[in-house]
């Protein structure tokens, strides 16, 4: 949590990037996949500043100028807090960062700083769960299919999964999480993604 908090604090206050843009880049990066699985070198082996430059290098935004030095700030910034909470929510519900920022965009999270920074992490998790319940964006399947440029019919023909099934998964009339593993694997193969990327997040707060 501290590492990702520093990542966003540095990106916004020292590098001068827009927090929401950095959040979108991060969510799309291989670095985020490593973070999501708890890879030790990411979550504890590197500082937030080092991770920011790792991401820049991965995505081709790395220039040849020297690493910008971190400035002194007497208090935690809203971006620091937003990164802290994003890391907690991702871990708490085992979601991808893409889902986290789809449900609660980074700039919206920053705007919640006052007064929510005084609340506990678990209270923020409850707020996230409430928003997740009402979140009805595109399914992961629809998003991945669109990104690959396929129509539903084309995906059905290439994967061997019926058009009707694909339509029902995308409309949430059938739960893709309960679909036959072989069918989801066939779709994932065509879309060049992991099976996990097509499953829908299930959030529950005890």
Automatic annotation (TrEMBL):
Q: Name one GO molecular function term.
A: DNA binding
User: Start and end of every HTH cro/C1-type domain?
Assistant: 141-198
CDD domains associated with the record? HTH_XRE
What sections of the protein cross the membrane? none
Pfam families hit by this protein: HTH_3
Give the top-rank taxon of the lineage listed in the UniProt record for this protein.
Answer: Bacteria
* Matches recorded under InterPro entries: Cro/C1-type_HTH, Lambda_DNA-bd_dom_sf
- Tell me the protein's name: Transcriptional regulator
